[in-house]
Amino acid sequence: MKNFLSLRKKLIADVYSKFKTNRLGKHYSKIKALICLELGSVFAFFFIRLNIKPNLITFIYIILILAATVLLGTGEKNLIYIGVLIFFFKNSLDLIDGFIARITKQTSALGHKLDTWAGYISLICFQLALGLYVYSKNLNVHYLYFTLLIVTLSAIDFKKHYLSISNEKKIHNFKKLSSRKNHNIILSFFFKIFSILDYDARSRYTDLVLLVIIIETFQNKLILSPIIIYVWVLTNLGKFLYKAFKTYNL
């Protein structure tokens, strides 16, 4: 018990150190972070006792995300709930691979890349999971096409590839170009709405969609999830075209 409490204290300190300005956020975000921290402490304790390597934990995380995607796509009520739980608590594992690597002195460039890759897989798989879920409920093949478009646009995001191979100066210039603000009030309002609707794996956004899935599964009918698919098609297409335009003008 003493070893567990000591590990838990280290994990909390490690996570808090990454949020120096707003700590763990406010209200719901903070509650969710604390839940994941407590669960992550338990996972970290057993992984260390079992001598499971940090990179293996990252692969376990990826496997669980893929499993959750399949579970949501089955259309079976109980399996959907299990998939929802995995997506809801996935941050518990995401928090601890790097933490275990640091306290056991197993950090590596490969581990950092794997962690980034896992986050990218999580983002794409959640969008895929929602599309498969909607299709399983109404068998409208158009939702499969929409989902394929969403996932494809996310997967061929040139900006991510560009930033992964460019030097720091080029990265700085690209970010500066991509984040340049337009002073037109109408455009500013448009970009604000776009940033809210665009899915970027934010925990609150993910959990809101999960709540929609839970309600729909309980009611046994689609309510908002098809609309979310349409929104993601538009935001992913708009984001892709915007980034392509900015890249062309580099």
Keywords for this structure?
single chain; 250 residues; mainly alpha; 13 helices; 0% strand; globular
What's the structural blueprint in terms of helices and strands?
Blueprint (H helix, E strand, L loop, with lengths): L1 H15 L11 H22 L4 H21 L2 H13 L1 H4 L1 H8 L5 H30 L2 H15 L2 H8 L2 H11 L6 H13 L5 H17 L5 H24 L2
Helix pairs in contact: 1-2, 3-4, 3-6, 3-7, 4-12, 7-8, 7-13, 8-13
What is the mean pLDDT?
83
The secondary structure category is: mainly alpha
- List unreliable stretches of 5+ residues: 167-178
Helix and strand sequence: HHHHHHHHHHHHH
How would the global form be characterised?
globular
Radius of gyration: 20 Å
User: What percentage of residues falls in helices of 4 or more residues?
Assistant: over 70%
How does the major sheet shape up?
Answer: none
* Gap from first CA to last CA: 56 Å
Percentage of residues in strands = under 5%
Number of DSSP E strands: 0
Helix count from the secondary structure assignment: 13
Describe the structure.
This protein is mainly alpha-helical and 250 residues long. It has 13 helices and no strands. The chain has helices at 2-16, 28-49, 54-74, 77-89, 91-94, 96-103, 109-138, 141-155, 158-165, 168-178, 185-197, 203-219, 225-248.
Q: TL;DR?
A:
The protein is mostly helical. The protein has 13 helices and no strands.
